[in-house]
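Lab notebook: predicted structure, single chain.

Context: the supervisor wants predicted structures on file for every construct in the current expression panel, including those that have not yet been purified. This is the next one on the list. No modifications to the sequence; it matches the entry in the shared construct table.
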Amino acid sequence: MEIGYSVVSQWSPDFTPDYDSFIFHDPTHLKLQSNDWISYYLVKKVNRKVLAQVSFHNLKGKAVTPLRAPFGSFLFSERLSPQGLYDFIRHCELQLKSDGIKQIRMTEPPLFYRKSGELLQSILFNLGYQVSHAEVNSGIHIDIIPFEKKIEVWEKRKLKQSKSKAGVYKHLPFSALDVVYEFILKCRKQRSQTLSMTLEELKVTANTFKKEFLFFGVYFDNELAAASIAIQVNASILYNFYSGHLKKFDSISPVVMLINGMYGFCRSHNIQLLDLGTSSINGQPNFSLLDFKLRLGAIPSMKLTFEKNLE
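Prediction complete. Output recorded below exactly as produced.
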């Protein structure tokens, strides 16, 4: 490492992170995933600022990040030089190898989550990492342009149709968690699909991060037609974690009204990106779902999982 920097494995109360973080890197969220983590922090000695960090779980000799979350990987300061980032990653690799780790697997956040994502991924390629899994993520950038001017003609018709049928969008209270979860699960079952978390698993995480879990719905004649469980990943990003609509409302496509309402929520809360998530079935692109998101004004972004053998 460069002179003036050190790598430590424990967080100190006098450390100050010099980078934006995400909920899935929060120590409390890491503990929900597992109690067993190997962490590394790159610290500038003169001011105790942390310029990079990563946490791995030892899964039978494989260092993985995340364990049970959408993504993990490295966090790092934009003020950290490319050489410094390279050296930090290399230091972590050597330490993991000396501790008996034989392989690393890390899932990156979608590339549009951070400006410096391309730098990190380029360094990973230079260090011999290979992409083991690639997904297409999509999200809508929040700006002064109204949602209705971002979406394509067909989706405008669906939004107008929902309004003509007196559809009502609502930002729901936290107490709606059970109802919204069971509703979305019902929507998935109608399509022979399921959810990645049980209600009890979701409750544990949501109750730990009550401010970050948000619930939205669209109603027709007081009947819930579409709903979303969203997670505020950080101050700038809202992630549409789970969403769905009843098949009986297919002709209306109430999700358009739902996303319209969530877009407005983001604008009023200075959130810059509405992440609509990945579009895949059994590891392969779900093109119809991806096309629908693109028609809503979303742009695609890579979400890559990297692996490297250390032997």
